[in-house]
Write a structure and sequence with these properties.
The structure holds three protein chains of three kinds. Chain A is built from 17 helices and no strands. By secondary structure, chain A is mainly alpha-helical. In chain C, a hairpin with a 4-residue loop joins strand 4 and strand 5. The termini of chain C are far apart. Classes of the chains: A mainly alpha, B alpha+beta, C mainly alpha.
Chain lengths: 408, 302, 243
């Protein structure tokens, strides 16, 4: 491994991303349009200040941080694919686990971007670096979050980089290098989502978040939404590329998702019971979410849609017949994705802040600028994922197409 | 209404622009400038800046503000006095909700007028419901106050001993001084608003846009950690008027209160008003269940 | 061979059939409609049209208020000399300037201890202080109208009126002496000036007078626009009691 070879690998990878049919190019163009629109929106936010968002002192975290939270879950869910693949050496999933890692990288990139657009002084973001800046660990959970997210990004980038690099030169990957990293990525994945949950969980001022069940709920919902995206992506990849994905792999993932869905709904029910039965002053946040408070009902339709989607999807995943049927499986995946996106993106951060700590209800609704910036970041994430797949699929083609993987 | 940002550029740059200097001097200047630039980029915390550098920064600041506002601005960095721990008392049986304190505070502390920032929020409460934040109303505006069925509860930073806002800050931009005042370093804050989520009293406020402050409204007696003008995108909060109390004065809200509901003093001095108050009256703190241990005590004198 | 067949079969099922696609489109349609409606409604639509908090006022809008709160010269002097302690201030001015000394008129008048409505003079005074039997001469000394009289017969000047008040309001008097009741101004660790009871309470009708509150803060929904609204400042304050 030397500089020249790395350079060759990079150039070669870049060439791979240029080739593609009209669908690929129009997809990339579409993403580019979203990115430019988001870029302009962010430029306005950067010059005028966060006043162009609808965040205010009353609801000081909202759309951006909600998306961040959701995407941390997506990134963490790569673990669901990695665990059975490498711990139990279960081949059908191991063959496709690399896509989980690619998704994790894209999701973490989006996470970091969402945090960056949310802060008021992005030029001081260097302060968040350990040693160079003045990162306040161990006291600040956000500090920890920055550490573990960056660590997780580096970890996944190393694994994927190694796989692709070796594949580019048609060599088997170095098991002694990859397997420990892969094993380490499992606790790392759990920890990024736990630490993100702790960022909210640790705030006694916000009773909606200050429940110990929060971190388990985060993990449970991530184990639903992450694989849901993966399954949809697999369908698309199978259709648009020559990647072979075995049915066993898909139904195994679907089965695991059914367990995760059950856990997610159970934990949700536990939380709802505690809130409504004890009926303390802390109930207001839950009420705001599900029934509205004093006529403020912006989130109510979303909350119910999320709940209905999750329950329907659980049913679809629970019954083996609908789980094995590709049509209902895909439907379930989309329902889960939408349900968890609402649950984490909207229904966690905003109701936690509404009413605010002094009881004021400010009905937060994102501005178009926030929507555009958010869409731009998602476009960047999808583009990163598309480019990574574009490089990975031809390079790993042999691995993925041949039942006997090299180095196995 | 927006004022253009006509801040004088830092003297380093004008120094660089001065082309008459000898080559060697320019080279030295460039190195000096880049070192300074990196230092600015990774701006050290107020607590860590060396006294020399601090003095230079404060001089630059004073010069900048004096030019910008056409007033002789002083920026103090005066530290905490030994044996002093500030405490605050607020008599709920007296407060009539007139909001003089709110505007007195704005006048003293150079808050942005647009977008408006108020450090004190006066909550109107229903007498029959007691202190119930969910039922409170900060936007009351009747012809006269107090109203028959209401009482009023002003809330600002409670200067917690066990402040949740401090521990969540990812870059140590906020801390508690030895005299108990929780301060923010506006040159260090990255604007992540973690502290705003963590504060149970809604005491922290964010500069959602470039703060607007007319030159004639500026209070020229400033403190580095207090009322100096804030940039866009940072968090600010009540500092018990650090620029006043470090010089022995009462905070502005104490003096302006027309009913004398506001009390202030040194909790470590047996003979101080605050200590007398706490001995004679029964005080309570807001949201005591969160163990924030505020130094802001509410009481009912009658 | 079997695997290939499975692949084939899967290949046809990779993407959902048309009916499922319609269901999915409907789901997303509903979501999009709700999202768009929520977005278009915006956040300020959720505020009652009569609600307060649309205009950004600043201290500049109230020039009649004394925000600077200068100390009296003798207190300032004491403060600068690092002199601690509490300094009294002159008693509040009477309702009309010419009214003191009282003896100017009262010296020649006959004392009328009868409780009655005042008509020719002092008709601005409405006595609303304690029990109905209370009368001027309970506090004002009949023989020497320039002084107040305590219950024990001691005469005190108007600058010491607090002694008179303290006879009945003992607890408040003690609170006031210790700085718990009443306004103070100056230095928490040094010279302070404080006010007499009569500065804030009209002795004839001591209940603290209601006043116009300063305007409410700007609601979050209007934070961007509040400064563009012209403040309508029509005698927003009545400074009956502000010093």
């Amino acid at each position: 491994m030397n500089i020249k070879k790395i350079w060759e690998f990079l150039i070669g990878s870049f060439r791979l991303t240029l080739k593609g049919n009209w669908a690929y190019h129009s997809w990339m163009a579409f993403l580019a349009v979203l990115m430019v629109s988001g870029g302009f929106a962010y430029w306005r936010q950067f010059t005028e200040g966060l006043i162009v968002t609808n965040m205010r002192d009353q609801v000081s975290w909202a759309f951006y941080i909600g998306n961040f939270t959701f995407l941390v879950g997506v990134a963490a869910a790569a673990v669901l694919l990695v665990i059975p693949a490498y711990v139990y050496n279960w081949k059908p999933i191991r063959e496709i686990a690399i896509f989980g890692e690619l998704l994790a990288i894209s999701a973490i990139v989006m996470c970091l971007l969402f945090v960056t657009v949310d802060i008021g002084q992005p030029s001081r973001a260097l302060e968040l670096l350990p040693f160079i800046g003045s990162l306040n660990v161990p006291s600040s959970l956000l500090g920890w979050d920055v550490l573990v997210l960056n660590g997780y990004l580096v970890l996944n980038a190393m694994i994927v980089g190694h796989f692709l690099y070796k594949a580019y030169f048609k060599k088997p990957y170095n098991k002694n290098f990859v397997v420990p990293l892969l094993l380490f990525s499992i606790p790392a994945a759990i920890s990024i989502h736990t630490v993100t949950a702790f960022v909210y969980n640790g705030m006694a001022a916000r009773p909606f978040w200050n429940a110990s069940i929060l971190a388990p709920r985060f993990i449970a919902s991530a184990l639903c939404s992450g694989p849901a995206i993966m399954l949809i992506l697999f369908q698309i990849l199978r259709k648009t590329t020559h990647i072979r994905i075995r049915k066993e792999a898909i139904s195994k993932i679907a089965e695991l998702m059914a367990y995760a869905m059950f856990l997610n709904l159970f934990l949700f029910g536990v939380e709802i019971f505690k809130e409504y039965y004890s009926n303390t002053s802390h109930l207001v946040h839950t009420k705001y979410l599900y029934t509205g408070l004093h006529g403020h009902t912006a989130l109510v339709p979303f909350a119910w849609i999320s709940l209905i989607f999750s329950v329907v999807a659980f049913m679809l995943f629970l019954v083996p017949k609908t789980r094995m049927n590709m049509v209902t499986l895909n439907l379930g995946c989309i329902l889960i994705y939408a349900g968890v996106y609402i649950e984490k993106g909207l229904a966690l951060v905003i109701p936690g802040m509404t009413p605010d700590t002094l009881g004021e209800i400010y009905e937060y609704i994102p501005t178009w600028i926030e929507i555009r910036v958010g869409a731009g970041i998602f476009a960047i994430g999808f583009m990163v994922f598309t480019l990574l797949c574009k490089v990975a699929i031809p390079l790993l083609h042999d691995t993925l197409a041949d039942p006997v993987a090299p180095g196995a | 209404m927006k004022t253009t940002d006509d801040r004088p550029k830092i003297d380093r740059r004008s120094f660089l622009a001065g082309g008459t200097a000898a080559m060697g001097a320019i080279a030295a200047g460039v190195t000096g400038a880049s070192a300074g630039f990196i230092e600015d980029l990774l701006h050290k915390n107020f607590k860590e800046i060396s006294p020399d550098r601090m003095q230079r920064i404060v001089r630059e600041m004073e010069q900048e503000y004096t030019e910008k506002y056409g007033k002789n601005v002083t920026v103090s960095t005066k530290g905490a006095q030994q044996g002093v721990l500030f405490g605050y008392g607020l008599d709920l049986s007296r407060c009539i909700g007139c909001r003089r304190c709110v505007y007195g505070c704005v006048n003293e502390n150079n808050q942005s007028r647009d977008p408006q920032i108020h450090w004190i929020r006066v909550l109107e409460m229903d007498k029959s419901k007691g202190i119930n934040l969910e039922e409170s109303n900060p936007y009351y505006n009747p012809e006269t106050v107090p109203e028959e069925d209401s009482f009023y509860m002003p809330v600002a930073c409670q200067q917690c001993r066990n402040a949740p806002c401090i521990k969540v800050c990812p870059v140590e931009a906020t801390w508690q001084e030895a005299d108990g005042i929780v301060v923010v370093d506006y040159d260090h804050c990255i604007g992540c608003r973690c502290c705003m989520s963590a504060c149970p009293y809604g005491a922290r406020h964010f500069n959602w846009a470039e703060p607007e402050l007319a030159a004639e409204s500026v209070n020229p007696d400033m403190h580095y950690l207090g009322n100096r003008p804030r940039p866009n995108g940072v968090v600010e909060k009540c500092t018990f008027c650090i620029q006043r109390v470090r010089n022995g004065k009462y905070p502005a809200c104490v003096e302006i209160c027309p009913v004398g509901a506001r009390k202030f003093g040194n909790l470590l001095d047996e003979a101080d008003e605050m200590r007398v108050l706490m001995r004679k009256k029964r005080v309570f703190v807001l949201k005591e269940d969160l163990n924030t241990q505020p130094k802001f005590y509410y009481f009912y004198a009658t | 061979m079997k695997e290939n067949e499975e692949q084939q079969e899967l290949g046809q099922d990779l993407l959902p059939g048309w009916s499922a696609l319609v269901v999915m489109l409907m789901i997303f349609g509903v979501l999009t409609v709700i999202t768009l409606m929520t977005l278009l409604r915006g956040s300020d639509d959720h505020v009652d049209s009569t609600a307060e908090g649309r205009i950004a006022y600043g201290p500049e809008d109230f020039p009649e208020l004394d925000f600077e709160m200068e100390l009296l010269p003798h207190v300032q002097e004491a403060a600068e000399g690092k002199e601690a302690g509490v300094f009294t201030v002159p008693p509040p001015p009477f309702s009309e300037e010419y009214i003191f000394p009282c003896s100017e008129c009262h010296a020649d008048l006959e004392v009328n201890p009868e409780r009655r409505e005042l008509v020719d003079m002092h008709d601005d005074i409405v006595l609303n202080h304690g029990p109905a039997e209370r009368w001027c001469l309970d506090c004002h000394n009949a023989a020497d109208r320039d002084h107040l009289r305590l219950v024990n017969g001691t005469l005190v000047g108007f600058e010491e009126s607090y002694k008179l008040c303290g006879q009945c309001h003992g607890t408040i008097f003690r609170d006031w002496r210790e700085g718990i009741h009443g306004r103070r101004r100056g230095y928490w660790d040094g010279a302070k000036q404080y006010l007499l009871c009569a500065h804030c309470h009209n002795p004839h009708s001591p209940k603290f007078e209601a006043m116009k509150p300063l305007p409410p803060p700007v609601r979050p929904q209007f934070l961007r626009t509040a400064a563009e609204v012209e403040p309508e400042h029509a005698g927003a304050t009545e400074e009956g009691h502000d010093q």
